[in-house]
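the two lines:
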Amino acid sequence: MGDYTLCGWRVRSALPLPELLPWTGDGRTPDITIRIGEAPALVDPVLSGPFLSIGRCGAGRFEVADVAAFIVRDGAEVTVEPQVPLDAPDIALFLFGSVFGLLCHQRGELPLHGSCVHIKGQAVVFAGPSGAGKSTLAAALLAEGHTLLADDVTVIRPAADGWGMGKVFAIPAFPRQKLWRNSLDALQLAAGRRLRTNGDFEKFEYAVPRAFHAEPVPLAMVCHLLEARLPNLPSLEKLSGFDAMAHVRSVVYRLRAGQQLDGGARIFANCAALAAAVPQYRLHRPAHFDELRAFAKALPNLLGL
Amino acid sequence: MTQFRESAGVIQTNKKILSAVIDNEVVLMSVDQGRYYALDDVASDIWRRLARAPTQTELINELVEHYNGDREHIERDVAALLVRLAGEGLIDVQP
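prediction for all of em together
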């Protein structure tokens, strides 16, 4: 049993979570409690898939064959029914993936599928679907001396008095990245634990204890990552209006699960508010690793930071 | 189509439709249907004017004055837009 910090929440976990920093905040009761227990199928779900189901009360259940089943309730209670040892990396992979995403939606947070880097006092989210190059670009920026707020999933939170220009924050998650073998090799980084015990999933942990920024940072922009297919394309394009909002919506993490909770009204409002308050760009990143370092070096300047 | 030839009814936005403004563009969502709609500049302007529940004649008078345009042209375009908005359940026309 340990108390940890995640996005400013106090997390009490029966599972060891060495990914997270220990809780050093106030004496509040835990915001999120992770228990070991039974995680049976939900009765009469409103959404039912092989991996995810959502119940009428907004509870969610994830099941990953040969790893674990998870039930997530009220944005506060996680029950894990493991089929592998508690410290297996496979459990953490889904706990900090889909379970984290659903917790965010249940708590009314906006989680983006993106990695977030602190560059010269401002936060930039590099967003996109799996394979877009989010984590690799973040790692290349860390190699340039910038610091990480979150890898793969970034929580975006407005100030207490609402969304507004300069009042939107990227929230730190934990000092660890997930990187493919070829990204680690290209950046000459040492791989940590393999994220899946079995199979040929060549993705690894990469701890960044000294390159982590543990406080919220004003969000300067969201860059929607695309691989450059043609040379000499303008590599940065501003998005506006509905286009900007549609891009935000497309990178809401676990969008379908989030929309099931209230029909999508909250996500609509949050995506519109974020698109209105924070500039959205399309950023073409290099297709080849040999251009990555130079691209990362030039990027703050390109972004006007 | 014919309902919009009548000019006496008050046109109102459907209160169940969510709306937001991004860079002056109005974006709408029908929660019931889970659909998003993006309005162009002129349609966004018209949507904002519908907040005051004008009759079709009042709306057209406002637009003719604001855009200093040809009345017949505007009448035709507005009728076509209202048919589309009503068809998607985004507005209601009170008799």
